[in-house]
Design brief:
11 helices; single chain; binds flavin-adenine dinucleotide; alpha/beta; about 375 residues; FAD/NAD(P)-binding domain
C-alpha cells in the first residue's frame, strides 16, 4: 500500500497526520523545525477550529487559552462592538502546533522533526540526504516548496505582517477580557487579544508602500500605531519579543485550482489563503487536513479532494478578500464602519459568512 507522506507539521499537516494515524494508516510527517516556535498569526482560534481539534481527540482546553466572545472594531475615533455568534480561544501557535504533532505521534504517526523538504521532483520529496516517495500531502503553509509554485495572480500580496506579544497591563487585561479588538488604520489593520499566560498578541498587516512612507522600520510603525485610539494603551505595556516576527507576500485570496493530472494533495495555506482578519485560516487548515485524511482512506484522488475542499471554502475566501480590498481604501473603510455601526447584527453576520459552514464542519468531523 502507498505510504502517505505529509510535508509540513503546522495545523493542516498535524490534523492530517493525527486523523490518518487514527484510521490505522501510519503516515510519515516531515517538519523542518526542530522545536516548538512562535509563528506569525493572530492566534484567534475559531469555534470551527475547536470542533475539528476535539473531533481529532485533541483537548485544546488543557493548553489554557483565553476565551473570546466579542469583537470590537476601531477606525480612528469610531468604533463598533458585537457579540460573536460563537466563542473562540486565544492560544499561541507555539503551544498548539507542537501539541498537535505530539498528539499525532501518540496516535501512531511517524514525525521527523528538523527535516526540510528541499523540492518536489518526479513525485518524490527531496531531502538533504535522499528522497522519499509516496502519496504526497503538501502542507508547508505560507512557504513554497521548490518545484511547486502557487499561481497567485489576482491575489492581494502587497501586505507586510508583524506579530509580537505584550504583557497585559491591568487596564488592557480588563478592556480585552473576552474581546478581540481590530483596529483598521490607513493602509492596514491590527488585531489585539489575550492569549494564555497573561500575554497579549498584537498581529497586524500593513500595505508595503504605507510602511515605507511611515519610515520603513518597526519602531516608526509602532509609533504610528500608538496614535490610533484602539491601540494607544499599548504605550504602557511591556513588549515581550526582542523584535517582532514578520512576513510578506502572503497571497490573500489564493484558491488552488483542481487539476486531474496533479497527484499532489495541497492542504492549508497551500490550498486556500483567507484574509487574516477573519480568524478562520486555522480552521480551514484543520478542515483540509481532516478531509484529506478521510479521502485518502476512502481511496479518492488528489483532484477529487481539491474540488471538495474548494467547494467548502471558496465562497468564504472570496467574500473575505472583497472585504479586505474594501477596507484598503479610506472611503471603503469608513463606509464599512458606518454600515456595521448602523446595522446591529451585521458584524456578527460577516463573522459567520467568512467561516467554514457548520454543515461542512459537521460532515468533516462526523465519526467514521
Ligand atoms: C498575519 C497573519 C495573521 C493570522 N491570524 C490568524 C488568526 O488569528 N486565526 C486564524 O485562524 N488564522 C490566522 N492566520 C492564518 C493561519 O495562520 C494559517 O491559515 C494557518 O497557519 C495555515 O496552516 P498550515 O498548516 O497550512 O501552515 P503553517 O501553520 O504555516 O505550517 C506549515 C508548516 O510547514 C513547515 N514547513 C515549511 N516548509 C517546509 C519544508 N520545506 N519542509 C518541511 N516542513 C516545512 C513549517 O515549519 C510549518 O510548521 C493568520 C495568518 C497571517 C499571515
Amino acid at each position: 500500500m502507498t505510504r502517505t507522506v505529509i510535508i509540513g507539521g503546522g495545523l493542516a499537516g498535524g490534523a492530517a497526520a493525527a486523523r490518518l494515524a487514527s484510521l490505522g494508516a501510519a503516515p510519515l510527517l516531515l517538519e523542518r523545525e526542530t522545536a516548538a516556535h512562535d509563528k506569525i498569526c493572530g492566534e484567534f482560534l475559531s469555534v470551527e477550529a475547536g470542533a475539528h481539534l476535539s473531533a481529532l481527540g485533541f483537548d485544546v482546553a488543557r493548553l489554557g487559552g483565553a476565551r473570546i466572545d466579542r469583537v470590537r472594531l476601531h477606525a480612528g475615533h469610531r468604533s463598533a462592538e458585537a457579540k460573536l455568534p460563537f466563542t473562540a480561544t486565544g492560544i499561541t501557535r507555539r503551544s498548539l502546533d507542537w501539541a498537535l504533532l505530539e498528539h499525532a505521534e501518540r496516535r501512531g504517526a511517524e514525525v521527523r522533526r528538523g527535516t526540510a523538504v528541499r523540492r518536489i521532483a518526479d513525485g518524490e520529496a527531496v531531502l538533504a540526504d535522499g528522497s522519499i516517495g509516496g502519496r504526497l500531502l503538501l502542507a508547508t503553509g505560507k512557504h513554497e516548496v521548490r518545484g511547486q509554485p502557487r499561481d497567485t495572480r489576482g491575489t492581494i500580496a502587497d501586505l507586510i505582517g508583524f506579530k509580537t506579544f505584550f504583557r497585559a497591563t491591568p487596564v488592557l487585561a480588563r478592556s480585552l477580557s473576552g474581546a478581540v479588538a481590530v483596529t483598521v488604520f490607513d493602509g492596514g489593520y491590527a488585531g489585539l487579544q489575550c492569549v494564555e499566560g497573561g500575554r497579549l498578541n498584537l498581529c497586524l498587516l500593513i500595505d508595503r508602500h504605507r510602511f515605507r512612507d511611515l519610515g520603513g522600520t518597526w519602531a516608526s510603525l509602532f509609533t504610528a500605531l500608538l496614535r490610533e485610539p484602539g491601540l494607544a494603551a499599548l504605550a504602557d505595556a511591556e513588549m515581550l519579543l526582542p523584535r517582532p516576527l514578520t512576513i510578506s507576500a502572503v497571497p490573500y485570496g489564493f484558491l488552488v485550482r483542481p487539476r486531474a493530472d496533479d497527484p499532489l494533495w495541497r492542504l492549508g495555506d497551500q490550498a486556500a489563503v483567507i484574509p487574516s482578519f477573519c480568524g478562520d485560516g486555522m480552521a480551514m487548515a484543520l478542515h483540509g487536513g481532516r478531509l484529506a485524511a478521510d479521502m485518502v482512506d476512502a481511496g479518492a484522488t488528489a483532484a477529487a479532494f481539491q474540488a471538495r475542499l474548494r467547494q467548502d471554502v471558496a465562497r468564504q475566501v472570496r467574500l473575505a478578500t472583497t472585504l479586505q480590498r474594501l477596507a484598503g481604501s479610506r472611503i471603503g473603510r469608513f463606509g464599512l464602519i458606518a454600515g456595521l455601526g448602523a446595522a446591529p447584527g451585521a458584524l456578527a453576520a460577516l463573522a459567520r459568512w467568512t467561516r467554514v459552514t457548520p454543515g461542512a464542519v459537521a460532515r468533516a468531523t462526523a465519526p467514521a
